TrEMBL record, chains A, B, C, D:
It comes from the Eukaryota. This is Oxidoreductase. Pfam families: adh_short (PF00106). InterPro entries: NAD(P)-bd_dom_sf, SDR_fam. It comes from Aspergillus lucknowensis. Coiled coil: none annotated.
């Protein structure tokens, strides 16, 4: 029996990360990473009980040693199966406050949760992705962006600095690794995602929030694109969103 | 028996337009428009002989009267079936020459083939798309862009003027009609498409050209997005493309 | 006595165009063009009575023959003096209305007032600018943009189509003619300009509108940049403007 | 006698920083900061010996304590004179190598030299700039960008991450502090600057490199813009530069 390829998703909570894991688990084994096991334990149980194969590991991807150790555990667990897809989706780091009130630590968290975390994630996943060009779909590395990836709004300096840096990294990697057959993409999620925590927000239009399952379908679609036709950047938003 | 919804595609030749028609014909009746019937006759025959329903009309979409007459023929043929999707994909107007050698007529062709054509197309399709919000997928209006949609290169003034104007129109329509439930999207096709006419180009990498069938899969994917999660702009290019 | 070089400004009313003419008239002879002589007659009188040299001509720059005739008059008047700077600044074409209410003619006016007008203007001025690389400052061609040059807002389809097309043209010309020593620039004027017609608008902050004289200082600054250090695009807005 | 306002420039070597200091020293006292006193000592001597007032301090702006201490020295030296302009121009952090060879430290240097340094710089200068809205020109905070501010090229991941983050910060600060009367701007310097270290590069066109004195003239021009007419972003490049 052939070994199932692996998809790895960093940043799994109630929204995009969990839905991406569910979607990719239809075809692959999935490894899910969050700082807090509470964020992935129910998801791992759900996937494993419905015929999929999931494995959760707790790690802070901004800490390169901790992350590398988690990464090693994953491939020990999955017996060095090939890596088909890697999704970087950590949510942390959103600070909304006047600039002069942002502390050094808050700025560092905003910057590092995105930029340094993505650097560590790409450093460990790319060598494996480069070996997976013979799988059914081109190996894929997807970064989750936000409105703050393309717009530095007032009071969002820390988060926007991290998200802009993440987009720079995504562009640079797409240009370097695309020609080597790895599909690098960046998805700008522009709007509120429909998760338990946001249930009370903006309820004038009941369907005015991004559906994480629909977001995940788009991640999967990008993954299935052949290397002749790679999409790099797509912006997703609810129909009533102002932009 | 329920009436099959219609997809309408303007600009059908050997590449994107024909592949989009084939893809949408799996679910819908398709109307295909080109100036020259030679461009769609074989496609219409192919779709109709393989169980689909296609109808071709010859028209120049930059001529509002000629276009409106063609449009009326289509819905007479399809007995006022609902319009599910409209794709604007005319290829004309690429002029590559030093600016001082571009004639008034060439500039007008570059500008109008894209901007005026798209205006006429949107004026006739949007009223029908607005009535189709109860179909399985949100009604969708997709415009085909190019590298010249986001970059005015030397010697491409006429084509870039048209493609920039088209992108402006797409953004404006997305912001106005998105909240009314119509999905407006703009796809930047960045690279050479693999069609008979380009067979001889850039053959160092045999798979270095965009696959029109893969492009069409992405058009279809955008069409299936729910209105909670509309994608507006995606750029597609071959893995080895410099950008 | 050396012949004074000429600056030519199309689109002279109460705002940017008139201020640019006043600023450039400190160094050059200026030719000012508008459809309606009422728009430039007081300005021409003002400049001529204060020691400058101004000449006004009435023409519609979207009509290539009418424009060429006006252009010939200017250089007959100024005895074939060298052309140092050309500024394209027509204001027409702003239509703000729901897309389905925009008429064919309104769309054509929005598109042509910017794109076709700029094409005609560039076609006649560039051959002269190319001969002026020996003047004190590099010969300069400046296009006036707007918010609608970089954003297609709802209800602005016609104006945005024209302004996007104009920006495409500016980019293409900068890339083609920069290496030949002509400075091509595009200024995005983002906000309300302080002119008589706008006196009643937004008066919460008395200085919340763009000062046309300050805009003109920036046009002049760009003109004085050496060819080692050409600025292409700058956005100008009042300090309280939301963007 | 009125106290001369101060301009402060971080990142002073042979290029932009030194020229900006010379230009602003015509009107203001200038404080220049670099890690290595060798980078500013000759400049300080030059300005002081030609009638200006310059003061140099050695500091690493990415170290908030060291930076704050340097900052305090400056205003002790200049007896709490008002701060008229602050320019962030550190050059460090350019790493050009394949992504998988970039070390954690190199990535951190690229990111922090720009993003964290700019955060520290803005945190200390903005409270003083906010008090200077009564000076002749609006108080100004200018950040120096690069091609890598708007494009993540292959092999430039570390530098582009820092420069994108810096641009996010600049946008966010412009939107927050503009309405409070502080002019925040971002200049994209796109090309090779003409300094001793680059003398041997690209010498096909003898004037194909950015002139730091011309760059400085543009910084000064932006500083003199009134608050009705703030420029946010300008790109500067040599006339023959490909872009």
């Amino acid at each position: 029996m052939a070994t199932k390829p692996v998809a790895i998703i960093v940043g799994v909570g109630a929204g995009t990360g969990a839905s991406v894991a569910r979607r990719f688990a239809k075809e692959y084994s999935v490894a899910v990473i969050a700082r807090n096991p509470e964020n992935y334990d129910p998801l791992v149980a759900e996937i494993n009980s419905s015929g999929g194969q999931a494995f959760g590991v707790s790690a802070d991807v901004t800490d390169s040693n901790a992350w590398q150790s988690a990464f090693n555990q994953i491939f020990k667990h999955f017996k060095d199966a090939p890596l088909a897809a890697a999704v970087f989706n950590p949510g942390g780091g959103v600070t909304w406050k006047p600039f002069l009130e942002i502390t050094e630590d808050e700025f560092a968290v905003g910057l590092n949760s995105q930029a340094t975390g993505a650097f560590n994630f790409a450093k460990s996943t790319l060598p494996l992705l480069l070996k997976s060009t013979n799988l059914q779909h081109p190996p894929t590395l997807i970064f989750t962006g936000a409105t703050a990836s393309v717009r530095g709004s007032a009071n969002f300096a820390a988060f926007a600095a991290g998200k802009f840096a993440l987009r720079a990294l995504a562009q640079s990697l797409a240009r370097e690794f695309g020609p080597q057959g790895v599909h690098v993409a960046h998805i700008v999620v522009d709007g509120v995602i429909d998760i338990p925590r946001t249930k009370e927000w903006k309820n004038e239009h009941p369907d005015a929030k991004l559906d994480p399952a629909a977001i995940a379908d788009t991640y999967w679609h990008l993954h299935t694109q052949p290397r002749t036709t790679f999409g790099f950047e797509l912006d997703l938003r609810p129909y009533i969103e102002k932009w």
